[in-house]
């Protein structure tokens, strides 16, 4: 009924000043860097941009990034659904401890995340001598990159689904069970449709991080061109070799991925009311 | 972990809990304990030699100092941005709201090369600051700038829902009681959002301390001057000094867990006060 | 203090919340703004408080024009529908807030503030709860704290927006009479908004009945019940049966000459007759004003018998209260005569 709250609104002048400061800050810290990526990529025209992308090493980096995300995202999605089912649908002691442990990778520096795998599988690591003996390479090879990526993206799907499934409760599932549906039928026909947008949201964020992870992967990759270079690592190498256009060209692909991620994420939030979790809560 | 006596009609607890624990153990807990066990085996002297060396201390100082400064800057501007997003209508509002999450989505290495290109002496922004004698790239200031970029969404997304939830009637009540707008902000609004602001601050700070990708390009990486702690770990690794890397990693791990604990205590405090 | 509202209009986009409202309070009176949701009563209250501002018209406090003065400068006690207590402050801090935000030279000493808080806690009968947080109080307790907080600034006027809206029925009843006592003790002119007619009838000195941004009637509880000015007031306050009538030459005819009643207002054309359930008696045979009805249901309630009946040949059911001794069983034919009625 009460349509306005003039008392709680600043004067137009103050309002404009606050909005102006906000815009300036966002321009300096968000928009200019983004524009910079694309401007840098196209600094010498479209031809140079395309050449940088079809360079064999760049293509190898793109392939490896897709491979790593293609493994780690599904693996973490399955884990996330299982963890959310166990945590949200059942009561047990130590639940909040378990949630904290699942969140743990978020509070570990990416470099440390990579380091722990070097300590396990590196030449001087615990299993290093055994692995060398049997000719298995993990560190400075694709398995290490996958492991590090799985580690850093571990919580994304689970932390999106746990609150969602807890909020939905277990009424639907119990109703399905009372109608003699099996456990799998209940999951496929009742639970999964209920959580699909939340799952997509979590997978989306998980994928963005998996493709963009730099610190952890940098530690375990060894930076072997054409073999263990993911896109972010390739950006670094090109940049350090002063091939700025090449670096920004590959970076612009990653930035486009980020923009698509943001776009889909925003649509999911508006259309399906999925709360914004990001990594902030 | 044991289920409580109350039985659930749903199946799959054993299977999903088994998967969860197995996977959690394999991917997260075993690797992390490898780090802790390795550090424990070093002995205090060996640990302190690298972990608390002057070079490492300088790196911690930079990592923590810059993260603290960036979180403080973000506390002010993040609050301001959350405020205008919740309170005002203006063109482009939805776009800005979505764009706040850009640092979450943009790979850190991409942010790193973009920031250094912007803020170096011949960059778009750096060239404006250079005549004023302000050098950003390759200085601790550059590290702070990168961490401001990384930390912004933590503050905005922590504060925004609480601010939106804060009833206008509370502010109107303050007004009818004779409080000026400034008094209302200081004594009514700020205390109400303070826990959320602190949570966002702590999250941004914790993330900033461990951040690597967006910083190394802009930092300059000079030992004792612009070398961050995560980079020092990599330097140790490149010299195959696993123990040194482990020691530094352990110090950082302990500090980030302390932050995590702090955030959890904050949440408990918020829950107890009945303010969300 | 007396408040004068002159020709106040307020529009939100295309919606007219207040349409040239004029109103005057008497010093020390307890005035109720009563109406359904969307009637503009809350907007009017907020305009008097300076929380909202009219597009046209004036608000005067004791003859002084306050139209453009914001709430901060009006020194008004305002109690919000959902209490609007400061969640991070204790009860005592909530109550003293209005005193502690004063400029240093107007601010009472710490001791004076503490004494005032103690006095108000006593008044709201919560002397032990000064250190509690709002989250630790019941709804009724919160409402009382909100009132104490409003009273702490020694307001010139007390405004309450649906003060009992969020409480359950029993607590509402208790708080109602308590609020009336507080009003009488403080002697403050008070205005409260409600959509609950029972609440307004029970505690207000006068009632302002509003609908669609206009005032339908201002009057004492007896006046708005006994002499409703409009069909809306008549049907909004108390139970009323409404039947279509044809008005001509000082008479109102129900149905096809079912019954003919005197129409003092001398209206013409179609109209509506309002008859309250207890304003009916059994008719003598041959009475022109007798209404033939068929009993649908009947049950004794206290000393009366409540009968739901169908007016012969009309769709509208009629609710009537007759003495409990009257026999009425479903299907039975009765002739009833409206004793008191109003035609609009």
Automatic annotation (TrEMBL), chain A:
It is found in: Cell inner membrane. Its main location: membrane. The complex is composed of two ATP-binding proteins (CysA), two transmembrane proteins (CysT and CysW) and a solute-binding protein (CysP). GO terms for molecular function: ABC-type sulfate transporter activity. Part of the ABC transporter complex CysAWTP (TC 3.A.1.6.1) involved in sulfate/thiosulfate import. Probably responsible for the translocation of the substrate across the membrane. It is a multi-pass membrane protein. Gene3D superfamilies: MetI-like. Residues 62-263 form the ABC transmembrane type-1 domain. This is Sulfate transport system permease protein CysW. Pfam families: BPD_transp_1. The chain crosses the membrane at residues 21-42, 62-85, 97-123, 135-158, 244-264. GO terms for cellular component: plasma membrane. PROSITE patterns: ABC_TM1 (PS50928). Signal peptide: none annotated. It comes from Sphingomonas zeae. Keywords: Cell inner membrane, Cell membrane, Membrane, Sulfate transport, Transmembrane, Transmembrane helix, Transport.
UniProtKB/TrEMBL annotation, chain B:
It comes from the Bacteria. Residues 60-263 form the ABC transmembrane type-1 domain. Belongs to the binding-protein-dependent transport system permease family. CysTW subfamily. This is Sulfate transport system permease protein CysT. The complex is composed of two ATP-binding proteins (CysA), two transmembrane proteins (CysT and CysW) and a solute-binding protein (CysP). GO terms for cellular component: plasma membrane. InterPro entries: CysT_permease, MetI-like, MetI-like_sf, Sulph_transpt2. Part of the ABC transporter complex CysAWTP (TC 3.A.1.6.1) involved in sulfate/thiosulfate import. Probably responsible for the translocation of the substrate across the membrane. One of its GO terms (molecular function) is ABC-type sulfate transporter activity. Keywords: Membrane, Sulfate transport, Transmembrane, Transmembrane helix, Transport. The keyword GTP-binding does not apply. It is a multi-pass membrane protein. The chain crosses the membrane at residues 21-44, 64-86, 98-120, 132-156, 188-206, 245-266. The keyword Membrane applies.
TrEMBL record, chain C:
Pfam families: ABC_tran (PF00005), TOBE_3 (PF12857). The keyword Endoplasmic reticulum does not apply. SUPFAM superfamilies: MOP-like, P-loop containing nucleoside triphosphate hydrolases. Signal peptide: none annotated. The keyword Lyase does not apply. One of its GO terms (molecular function) is ATP binding. It comes from the Bacteria. Residues 3-237 form the ABC transporter domain. GO terms for biological process: quaternary ammonium group transport. One of its GO terms (cellular component) is ATP-binding cassette (ABC) transporter complex. Keywords: ATP-binding, Cell membrane, Membrane, Nucleotide-binding, Sulfate transport, Translocase, Transport. InterPro entries: AAA+_ATPase, ABC_SmlMolc_Importer, ABC_transporter-like_ATP-bd, ABC_transporter-like_CS, Mo/tungstate-bd_C_term_dom, P-loop_NTPase, Sulph_transpt1, TOBE-like. This is Sulfate/molybdate ABC transporter ATP-binding protein.
């Amino acid at each position: 009924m009460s349509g306005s709250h003039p008392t709680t609104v600043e004067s137009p002048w103050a309002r404009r000043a606050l909005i102006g400061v906000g815009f300036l800050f966002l321009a300096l810290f968000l928009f200019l860097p983004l524009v910079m990526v694309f401007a840098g990529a196209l600094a010498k025209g479209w031809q140079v941009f395309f050449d940088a992308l079809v360079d064999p090493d760049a293509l190898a980096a793109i392939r490896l990034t897709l491979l790593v995300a293609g493994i780690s995202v599904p693996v973490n999605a399955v884990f996330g659904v299982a963890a959310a089912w166990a945590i949200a649908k059942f009561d047990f002691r130590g639940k909040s401890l378990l949630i904290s442990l699942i969140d743990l990778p978020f509070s570990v520096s990416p470099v440390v995340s990579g380091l722990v795998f070097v300590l396990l599988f590196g030449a001087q690591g615990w299993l290093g001598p055994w692995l060398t003996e049997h000719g298995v390479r993990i560190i400075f090879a694709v398995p290490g990159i996958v492991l590090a990526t799985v580690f850093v993206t571990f919580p994304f799907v689970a932390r999106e689904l746990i609150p969602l499934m807890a909020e939905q409760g277990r009424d639907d599932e119990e109703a399905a069970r009372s109608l003699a549906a099996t456990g799998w039928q209940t999951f496929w026909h009742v639970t999964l449709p209920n959580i699909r947008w939340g799952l997509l949201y979590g997978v989306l964020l998980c994928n963005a991080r998996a493709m963009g992870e730099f610190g952890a992967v940098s530690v375990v990759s060894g930076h072997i061109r054409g073999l263990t270079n993911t896109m972010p690592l390739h950006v670094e190498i090109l940049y350090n070799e002063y091939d700025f256009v090449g670096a920004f060209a590959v970076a612009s692909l990653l930035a486009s991925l980020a923009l698509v991620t943001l776009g889909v994420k925003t649509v999911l939030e508006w259309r399906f009311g999925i709360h914004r979790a990001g990594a902030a809560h | 972990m044991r289920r409580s006596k109350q039985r659930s009609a749903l199946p799959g607890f054993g299977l999903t809990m088994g998967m969860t624990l197995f996977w959690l153990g394999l991917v997260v807990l075993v690797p992390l304990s490898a780090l802790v066990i390795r550090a424990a085996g070093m002995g205090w002297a060996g640990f302190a030699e690298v972990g608390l060396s002057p070079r490492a201390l300088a790196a911690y100082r930079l990592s923590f100092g810059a993260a603290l400064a960036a979180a403080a800057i973000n506390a002010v501007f993040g609050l301001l941005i959350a405020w205008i997003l919740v309170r005002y209508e203006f063109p482009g509002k939805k776009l800005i709201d979505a764009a706040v999450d850009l640092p979450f989505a943009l790979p850190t290495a991409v942010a790193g090369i973009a920031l250094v290109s912007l803020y170096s002496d011949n960059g778009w922004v750096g060239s404006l600051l250079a005549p004023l004698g302000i050098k950003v790239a390759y200085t601790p200031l550059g590290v702070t700038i990168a961490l401001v970029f990384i930390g912004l969404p933590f503050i905005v997304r922590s504060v925004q829902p609480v601010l939106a939830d804060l009833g206008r009637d509370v502010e109107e009540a303050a007004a009818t009681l004779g409080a000026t707008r400034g008094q209302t902000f200081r004594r009514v609004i700020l205390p109400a959002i303070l826990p959320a602001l602190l949570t966002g601050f702590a999250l941004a700070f914790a993330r900033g301390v461990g951040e690597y990708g967006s910083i190394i390009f802009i930092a300059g990486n000079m030992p004792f001057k612009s070398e961050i702690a995560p980079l020092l770990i990599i330097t140790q690794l490149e010299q195959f000094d696993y123990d040194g890397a482990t020691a530094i990693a352990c110090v950082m791990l302990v500090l980030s867990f302390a932050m995590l604990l702090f955030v959890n205590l904050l949440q408990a405090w918020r829950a107890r006060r009945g303010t969300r | 203090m007396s408040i004068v509202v002159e020709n106040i209009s307020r529009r939100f986009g295309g919606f007219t919340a207040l349409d040239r409202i004029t109103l005057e309070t008497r010093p020390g009176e307890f005035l109720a703004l009563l109406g359904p949701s969307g009637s503009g009563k809350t907007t009017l209250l907020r305009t008097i408080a300076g929380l909202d501002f009219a597009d046209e018209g004036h608000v005067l406090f004791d003859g002084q024009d306050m139209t453009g003065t914001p709430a901060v400068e009006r020194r008004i006690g305002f109690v919000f529908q959902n209490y609007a207590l400061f969640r991070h402050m204790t009860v005592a801090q909530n109550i003293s807030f209005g005193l502690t935000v004063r400029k240093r030279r107007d601010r009472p000493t710490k001791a004076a503030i503490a004494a005032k808080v103690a006095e108000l806690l006593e008044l709201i009968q919560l002397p032990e709860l000064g250190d509690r947080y709002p989250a630790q109080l019941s709804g009724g307790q919160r409402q009382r704290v909100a009132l104490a907080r409003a009273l702490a600034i020694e307001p010139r006027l007390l405004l309450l927006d649906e003060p009992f809206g969020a409480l359950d029925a029993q607590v509402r009843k208790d708080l109602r009479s308590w609020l009336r006592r507080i009003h009488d003790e403080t002697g403050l002119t008070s205005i409260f908004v409600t959509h609950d007619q029972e609440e307004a009838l029970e505690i207000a000195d006068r009632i302002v009945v509003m609908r669609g941004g206009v005032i339908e009637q201002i009057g004492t509880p007896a006046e708005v019940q006994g002499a409703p000015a409009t069909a809306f007031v008549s049907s909004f306050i108390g139970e009323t049966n409404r039947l279509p009538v044809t008005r001509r030459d000082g008479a109102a005819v129900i149905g096809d000459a079912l019954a003919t009643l005197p129409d003092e207002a001398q209206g013409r054309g179609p109209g509506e007759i309002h008859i309250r359930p207890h304003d009916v008696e059994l008719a003598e045979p041959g009475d022109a004003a007798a209404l033939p009805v068929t009993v649908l249901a009947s049950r004794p309630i206290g000393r009366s018998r409540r009968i739901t009946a169908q007016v012969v040949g009309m769709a509208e059911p009629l609710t009537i209260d007759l003495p409990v001794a009257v026999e009425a069983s479903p299907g039975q034919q009765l002739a009833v005569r409206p004793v008191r009625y109003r035609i609009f």
